[in-house]
Design brief:
Blueprint: E1 6-10, H1 14-26, E2 30-34, H2 37-47, E3 51-54, H3 63-72, H4 74-77, E4 81-85, H5 90-98, E5 103-106, H6 112-121, E6 127-132, H7 140-147, E7 163-168, E8 176-181
Parallel strand pairs: 1-2, 1-3, 3-4, 4-5
Antiparallel strand pairs: 6-7, 7-8
Helix pairs in contact: 2-3
Bound molecules: zinc ion (ZN).
């Protein structure tokens, strides 16, 4: 029999935490809960969950600081994290990207069904590649123009050279998807 997946839900808002805990329990996950980043860090280190679903703003330790701390310890460094944002600020999305969060959802705009899909997607075989852009390649200049970015493919925020992040989904899925991102500050082309 397949082992049940263990997920850690971190949120200081009790009704929100309960809502997601129940959602994951109904989907047959084993759920652990933590009321803030500090407790999340303790429980993640002890239980090594298969995934972490966390809010951002919390007392004692926020979600970003928790993720940074998890990345510093080998046993917890590769646990996939999904961030649940209340306000959906662009700077938070960028920070989540830089910290290597697997997904970023905006609570009020993401249905429970969609949240579950995103969590399950963490366990689907898939790979991510980071590729450099050859600005002299066939359609590079056309692409820059279409996306409204400069033709040297430098980040609009920090001037770092942009790269392509390419994802391959599972085999049943349709091929690959690419995103133009800044490896330094997390800026992404829309
Ligand atoms: Zn940048």
């Amino acid at each position: 029999m397949e082992r049940r997946r263990k997920i850690l839900v971190v949120d200081d808002d009790e009704p929100t935490r309960q809502m997601y805990a129940n959602l994951f329990k109904e989907a047959d996950f084993q759920v652990i809960e933590a009321v803030d980043g500090l407790e999340g860090l303790e429980k993640a280190s002890r239980e090594i969950p298969d995934a972490i679903f966390t809010g951002i703003i919390m007392p004692r330790m926020d979600g970003f600081t928790m993720i940074e701390s998890l990345k510093k310890n080998i046993p917890t460094s590769n646990i996939p994290v999904i961030i649940s944002s209340h306000m959906g600020r662009e700077e938070d999305r960028q920070k989540a990207n830089v910290l290597g969060a697997k997904d970023f959802i905006i609570r009020d705009f993401t249905t429970p069904k969609k949240v579950l899909e995103k969590v399950k997607a963490l366990f689907v075989e898939g790979k991510e590649y980071r590729l450099e852009i050859d600005t002299s390649s066939m359609d590079a200049q056309k692409l820059a123009q279409d996306l409204g970015i400069n033709n040297s493919f430098q980040c609009m925020e920090c001037d770092e050279k942009l790269i392509f992040k390419v994802f391959s989904g599972n085999k049943k899925d349709r091929g690959m998807e690419a995103q133009l991102i800044c490896p330094s500050c997390g800026w992404q082309a829309k």
